[in-house]
């Protein structure tokens, strides 16, 4: 039972969805009298209203929905896990190829950029070919390019493999919101997004963690063979369990595409036969461009450029200073990545409750109405934590404070970023539910664009100015970026109205 529903049930309040907003009404009016379907306890009106078709993903069992969510989250995890692995392999690859780290780093930077660029194509192709076949074929190619990376015999071949791998590996990282929106109801979105986001946020830390141990004991190639094995496992899970989650409830049940073979849906043949019921190819390709014309999407994407980009930068800077300040070896540096991983877990636990509380507070102050801007309230809580963490990390590294202090303050930033990640994804999903994939792709593009830029600048920046000044400036940038959230918090409704809806052919 939702925390929101528990609170309102004590006051005998019903939450009825009218026109995309929750409105509280007291007895004797009831959702049943209005012909609306509710949760089993009758406290929450389901949004969207599910059909009577058992093929409707909203009608699937709880176990099936969460199994699919787990597979999507695992696949999304592998994207940044594979990318961040390059931050460690770069250090030892000059022994294999006669090039400096700065040249070999081009493979990592290219991979990062393609994680963002590839996401735009993921959602466009999904709108035309279907969710499942794009997930499957992109995962196949991610598996192939991971193996290519492991077996590359020249730097040029390795760079090509890594860049292409970034394009295909982003499939669930960019498209995850589509699956969440397809399978779960409005009131469930924040918690499910929080689970998916946690896998994404923890991956840049688990990648270096594993790679440090691997390169300590064996060749760097095994880092990418492990990545290949993980993609193989993800592919087996997709082949064994996944199904098409797109379902158009505007089409009568007797006119819905017949589901004959899950294998045919995996490879895309069934979706191809029913493509006339979805977007034309031009409509599908234009959807991301239409989405980015909406002011809230632009502001959220810019916000993420100036916040999540430091995750990649702090990885590089902290890894360097662990060796120069604390004289950690490979094992010590690897174990240090447990700090942000623990922080991610704590952020996930906090996010499980804080978004329901934020919605409750917002509704009490707005006469029972729940606008998308309610999802941004937790950012006000997370931003001071992120800024404090970055500032103290700069002082800790420059003044050589105890390494446990460094671990805690690094964790503060990560704890804040997981809450912000869930908040902005939930906000745009509520604001533009018919563009779930497109808004997720642009958020992902902002994240990778920030990482792409910071990867080049972070280490030289901290070395030239010292971590205290450099991270202080970066913390100021995070604080300044928060004003984009303030604008959306107070003027988001007007901006959404001014920008208009996206008016896609399908949701």
Task: Explain this structure.
- With 507 residues, this protein is mainly α.
- Helices cover 73% and strands 2% of the residues.
- The protein has 18 helices and two strands.
- The protein has helices at residues 3-10, 62-92, 101-129, 131-151, 155-169, 171-183, 189-217, 221-241, 262-267, 269-273, 281-291, 295-324, 330-336, 338-365, 377-398, 403-431, 436-465, 467-499; strands at 13-18, 21-26.
- Strands 1-2 form a two-stranded antiparallel ribbon.
- Strand 1 (13-18) and strand 2 (21-26) form a beta hairpin.
- Helix 7 (189-217) packs across helix 16.
- The chain starts with a helix and ends in an 8-residue tail after the last helix.
- Mean pLDDT is 89; it is low at 1-29.
Key attributes of the depicted protein:
73% helix; single chain; 2 strands; 507 residues; mainly alpha; disordered N terminus
- Strand runs, count: 2
Structural class: mainly alpha
- Give the overall silhouette: globular
Biggest sheet strand order reads: 1-2
The oligomeric state of the chains shown is single chain
Radius of gyration: 23 Å
Give the number of helices. 18
User: N- to C-terminal separation?
Assistant: 27 Å
- The biggest beta sheet, please? 2 strands, antiparallel
Beta-strand percent range: under 5%
Poorly predicted runs are 1-29
N to C succession of SSEs: HEEHHHHHHHHHHHHHHHHH
């Amino acid at each position: 039972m939702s925390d929101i529903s528990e609170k309102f049930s004590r006051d005998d309040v019903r939450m009825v969805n009218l026109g995309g907003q929750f409105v509280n009404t007291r007895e004797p009016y009831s959702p049943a009298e209005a012909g609306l379907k509710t949760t089993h306890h009758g406290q929450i009106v389901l949004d969207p209203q599910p059909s009577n078709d058992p093929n409707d993903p909203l009608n699937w069992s709880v176990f099936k929905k969460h199994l699919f969510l787990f597979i999507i989250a695992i696949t999304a995890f592998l994207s940044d896990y594979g990318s961040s692995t390059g931050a460690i392999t770069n250090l030892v690859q000059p022994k294999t190829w006669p090039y400096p780290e700065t040249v070999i780093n081009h493979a990592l930077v290219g991979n990062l950029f393609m994680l963002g660029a590839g996401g735009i194509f993921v959602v466009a192709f999904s709108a035309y070919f279907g969710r499942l076949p794009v997930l499957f074929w992109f995962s196949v190619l991610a598996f192939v390019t991971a193996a290519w990376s492991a077996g590359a015999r020249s730097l040029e071949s390795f760079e090509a493999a890594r860049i292409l791998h970034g394009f295909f590996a982003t499939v669930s990282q960019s498209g995850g919101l589509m699956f969440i929106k397809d399978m779960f109801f409005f009131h469930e979105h924040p918690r499910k997004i929080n689970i998916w986001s946690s896998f994404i946020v923890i991956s840049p830390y688990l990648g270096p963690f594993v790679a440090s141990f691997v390169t300590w004991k064996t060749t760097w190639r095994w880092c990418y063979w492990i990545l290949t094995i993980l993609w193989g496992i993800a592919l087996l899970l997709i082949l064994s369990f996944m199904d098409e989650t797109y379902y158009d409830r505007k089409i009568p049940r007797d006119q819905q595409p017949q589901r004959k073979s899950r294998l045919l849906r995996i490879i895309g043949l069934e979706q191809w036969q029913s493509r006339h019921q979805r977007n034309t190819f031009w409509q599908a390709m234009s959807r991301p461009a239409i989405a980015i014309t909406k002011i809230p999407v632009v502001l959220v994407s810019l916000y993420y450029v100036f916040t999540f980009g430091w995750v990649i930068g702090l990885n590089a800077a902290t890894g360097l200073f662990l060796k120069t300040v604390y004289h950690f070896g490979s094992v010590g540096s690897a174990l240090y990545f447990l700090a942000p991983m623990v922080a991610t877990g704590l952020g996930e636990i906090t996010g499980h409750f804080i978004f329901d509380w934020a919605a409750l507070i917002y509704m009490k102050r707005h006469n029972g109405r729940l606008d998308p801007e309610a999802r941004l309230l937790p950012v006000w809580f997370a931003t001071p934590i992120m800024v404090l963490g970055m500032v103290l990390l700069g002082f800790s590294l420059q003044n050589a404070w105890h390494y446990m202090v460094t671990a805690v303050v690094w964790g503060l930033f990560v704890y804040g970023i997981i809450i912000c990640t869930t908040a902005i994804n939930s906000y745009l999903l509520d604001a533009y539910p018919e563009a779930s994939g497109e808004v997720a792709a642009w958020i992902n593009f902002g994240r990778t664009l920030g990482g792409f830029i910071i990867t080049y600048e972070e280490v030289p920046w901290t070395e030239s100015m010292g971590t205290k000044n450099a991270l202080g400036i970066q913390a100021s940038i995070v604080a300044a970026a928060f004003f984009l959230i303030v604008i959306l918090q107070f003027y988001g409704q007007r901006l959404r109205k001014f920008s208009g809806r996206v008016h896609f052919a399908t949701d």
